[in-house]
Amino acid sequence: MRKTCVALFLVLTVALIGIAPLVSLAEYPSNYVVLKGGLYSPSDDFDVDTTHFNHDDGYVAEIAFGHYFMPMFALEAGVGYFESKASPAVPVGDTKFKVIPLTLTGKILFPIGPIEPYGEFGIGGYIAEADVSGTFSNFSGSTESVFGLHAGAGVNFNITQNVFLGAEGRYLWAKPSWGGTDIKLDGFTVTADLGFRF
């Protein structure tokens, strides 16, 4: 799945390069909202008691509001949703993880005409629910909150002064605990983005 995420990111980037016109960065409004949607690929399986779970891929969606403090630095606040399913090797039930991330992200941008590559780093609060089917001692389907980190890179392609398309790859670190069992939600997200400056 990691190869699929990388390939998707590269395809989106190459496709968008061809449709970005020349727009002057100095004319951009300083605020923006961006809609993101794509894939979530957990990087770790886990064990509950003596049962091993395979953590499957899922999807992610987010809406974020940002402000350019200067052409090379922006701060972005986002709220989203991602989920994935984990299935045991021996079919005795499964678990679906549903997560609402509340994130704050700093972006360092490198504007080159209509193309705007960037790197990012941020923190987040993750409200995670484990929807459990089957019976596993010390593990129940409750809602837990945990802080985490994320880092990534992306690129925006300015279609007009007020509209941009983008592609973003991100890795997140978060480890909630249910009944004393720590579950890493660490993983990759790859999204296609649609943004509006105002």
Characterize the structure shown:
It is a single chain. The chain is mostly beta strands. The chain has one domain: Beta Barrel (Porin), CATH 2.40.160.20. It has 1 helix and 12 strands; from the N terminus they run H-E-E-E-E-E-E-E-E-E-E-E-E. Strands 1-4-5-6-7-8-9-12 form an 8-stranded antiparallel beta barrel. Strands 10-11 form a two-stranded antiparallel sheet. Strand 10 and strand 11 form a beta hairpin. The longest helix is centred in the first third of the chain and has 16 residues. The protein is elongated, with a radius of gyration of 19 Å. About 4% of the residues have low confidence.
Give a topology summary:
Blueprint: H1 2-17, E1 31-42, E2 46-48, E3 51-55, E4 58-70, E5 73-88, E6 94-109, E7 115-133, E8 143-158, E9 163-173, E10 177-178, E11 181-182, E12 187-197
Antiparallel strand pairs: 1-4, 1-12, 2-3, 3-5, 4-5, 5-6, 6-7, 7-8, 8-9, 9-12, 10-11
> Helicity level, as a percent range?
under 10%
Radius of gyration, taken over Cα atoms and rounded to an integer in Å: 19 Å
Oligomer: single chain
Characterize the largest beta sheet: strand count, sense, and whether it forms a barrel: 8 strands, antiparallel, barrel
Q: Work out the number of β strands.
A: 12
Keywords:
198 residues; mainly beta; Porin; eight-stranded antiparallel barrel; two-stranded antiparallel sheet; 1 helix; elongated
What's this, in brief?
This protein is mainly beta and 198 residues long.
